[in-house]
Amino acid sequence: DAKTTQPNSMESNEEEPVHLPCNHSTISGTDYIHWYRQLPSQGPEYVIHGLTSNVNNRMASLAIAEDRKSSTLILHRATLRDAAVYYCILRAIIIQGAQKLVFGQGTRLTINP
Amino acid sequence: DAGVTQSPTHLIKTRGQQVTLRCSPKSGHDTVSWYQQALGQGPQFIFQYYEEEERQRGNFPDRFSGHQFPNYSSELNVNALLLGDSALYLCASSWGLVAPYEQYFGPGTRLTVT
Question: What is the pLDDT of residue A98?
Answer without folding.
Answer: 55
